[in-house]
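About this split. The held-out portion is used to measure sequence recovery: a designer receives only the structure tokens and must propose an amino acid at every position. Recovery is the fraction of positions where the proposal matches the reference. Here is one held-out target exactly as it appears in the evaluation file.
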């Protein structure tokens, strides 16, 4: 366990302590050493509630975000950037390192938890210090008041409507992030099915095609189950009950309660419609699981502990499940179709401006970590039988490609060898859809390249939107997205590739014209302050 006095001493040491941080990670760049340093500078194990990660970011949910020593974290070489929002510390480590560090952090948290004596509380065992993930009060609902919130959360009700809306998207992003690998895997599988259909290889009698179809359909069905699990976990409910709600919301039998018409994918040829009808809708599953958690917490407060073990799971699942089928499912289905239709009309009648604005601002959405929530809308567009395609993903792809173009311009212009070593591989990674390394490690730090990337994203987004480029899946951008572009037709593919080149070259050119700002290092900041 980290002594809190260590953080105070470190702050007093200023630049010297930052230099020590850099030298420690230089000499011993193992994931365990880095994890130890991150825990120390995040307030210690007592301050960390949970550690998760996405493709490039380590995400630490904290009890008190004021204990984070942001300057010392930024001075560590392996850390490409980071910030605190809504009680969560997000640290950019890159795809090669983030999973290793997350395993080490979780191992240290578990070791600390196992060494702390447990006491029996009204809802089960409770540890002092480290919160257990399954505690019913670990993540308070938005309507609850609690004295354990950090100073950032105390001012929630005084924030502007925009900030509250961003917090709501942050919550949704937290739920989506653990499922990103499944999004990517399911998207690639669906892309392969699309290619098979485009080239006439979709023969159900072939064993490889049947296996591929089975894997794709199963992956899409599992998405809602994991959303239910993570939603219940996020708000302190029982994750297993949340997963059960996810199964309810994706069961073929639920279609009989609607007027959708048609057969489910399990009664059709499964391979051809893995993202069928209503099933796979994410937002209804999140709402149903949130209702389950509210009911579960209410029952635990009112029922005696002797009967809670049997009655709470039974009553909460029965009530929430019935309401989900009879109320949430039809309501969310109607709202989802309306949202998809609205976006479709905006896309059809104002596609040029639509793509220009969204392509230009998408990278700004990415730096807040909220971009994963957009995938819920994309799934709704694809699963909507009246639409059936994704016109948002090509625009996002242009913004990501533009980040690569700006990074290549930095590589071509800068004389900083250390920066060049980062810019080239990070730009190549962005071409394959992972933009955080180039965005945080180069473009955003330098400033002007980020503006150049916004210009490239706007140009490419306007082009693909004007020519109505669409995809038949979601989850991947850049070069791998070509698999999702082939099936809608050759013209669709040609316009996508033109937009690809336009976004890349525009970002590259604008960045060269704007110039590259010099890298300001923490030591230089200290010297400037002293002068």
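Reference sequence for scoring:
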């Amino acid at each position: 366990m980290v002594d809190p006095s260590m953080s105070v001493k470190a702050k007093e040491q200023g630049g010297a302590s930052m230099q020590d941080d850099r030298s420690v990670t230089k000499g011993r760049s193992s994931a365990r050493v880095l994890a130890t340093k991150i825990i120390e500078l995040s307030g210690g194990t007592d301050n960390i509630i949970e550690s998760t990660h996405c493709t490039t970011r380590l995400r630490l949910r904290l009890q008190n975000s004021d204990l984070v020593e942001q300057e010392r974290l930024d001075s560590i070489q392996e850390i490409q950037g980071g910030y605190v929002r809504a009680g969560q510390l997000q640290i950019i480590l890159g795809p090669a390192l983030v999973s290793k560090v997350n395993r080490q952090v979780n191992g240290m948290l578990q070791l600390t938890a196992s060494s702390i004596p447990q006491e029996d509380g009204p809802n089960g065992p409770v540890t002092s210090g480290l919160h257990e993930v399954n505690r019913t009060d670990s993540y308070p609902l938005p309507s609850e008041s609690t004295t354990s919130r950090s100073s950032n959360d105390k001012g929630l009700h005084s924030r502007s409507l925009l900030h509250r809306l961003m917090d709501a998207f942050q919550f949704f992003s937290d739920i989506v992030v653990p499922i990103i690998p499944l999004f990517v895997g399911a998207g690639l599988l669906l892309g392969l099915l699309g290619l098979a259909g485009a080239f006439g290889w979709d023969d159900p009698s072939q064993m490889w095609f049947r296996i591929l179809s089975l894997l794709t359909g199963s992956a899409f069905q599992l998405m809602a189950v994991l959303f239910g699990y993570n939603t219940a976990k996020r708000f302190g409910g029982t994750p297993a009950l949340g997963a059960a709600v996810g199964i309810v919301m994706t069961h073929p039998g639920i279609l009989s309660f609607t007027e959708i018409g048609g057969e489910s994918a399990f009664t059709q040829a499964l391979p051809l419609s893995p993202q069928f009808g209503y099933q796979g809708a994410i937002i209804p599953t999140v709402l149903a699981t949130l209702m389950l958690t509210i009911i579960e917490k209410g029952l635990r407060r009112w029922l005696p502990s002797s009967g809670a073990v049997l009655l709470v799971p039974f009553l909460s699942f029965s009530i929430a499940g019935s309401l989900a089928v009879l109320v949430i499912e039809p309501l969310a289905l109607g709202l989802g179709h309306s949202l998809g239709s609205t976006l479709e009309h905006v896309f059809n009648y104002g596609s040029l401006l639509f793509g220009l604005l969204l392509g230009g601002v998408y990278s700004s959405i990415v730096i807040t970590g909220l971009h994963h929530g957009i995938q819920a809308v994309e799934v709704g567009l694809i699963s909507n039988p009246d639409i059936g395609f994704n016109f948002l993903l090509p625009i996002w792809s242009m913004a990501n490609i533009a980040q690569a173009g700006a990074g290549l311009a930095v590589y071509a212009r800068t004389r900083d060898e250390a920066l060049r070593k980062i810019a080239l591989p990070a730009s190549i990674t962005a071409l394959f859809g992972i933009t955080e390394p180039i965005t945080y490690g180069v473009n955003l730090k330098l400033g002007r390249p980020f503006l150049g990337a916004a210009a490239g994203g706007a140009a490419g987004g306007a082009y693909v939107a004007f020519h109505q480029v669409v995809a038949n899946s979601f989850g991947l951008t850049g070069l791998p997205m070509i698999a999702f572009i082939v099936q809608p037709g050759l013209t669709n593919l040609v316009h996508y590739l033109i937009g690809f080149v336009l976004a890349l070259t525009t970002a590259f050119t604008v960045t060269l014209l704007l110039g590259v700002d010099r890298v300001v290092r923490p030591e230089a900041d200290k010297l400037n302050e002293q002068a």
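Annotator remark: The longest helix spans residues 305-349.
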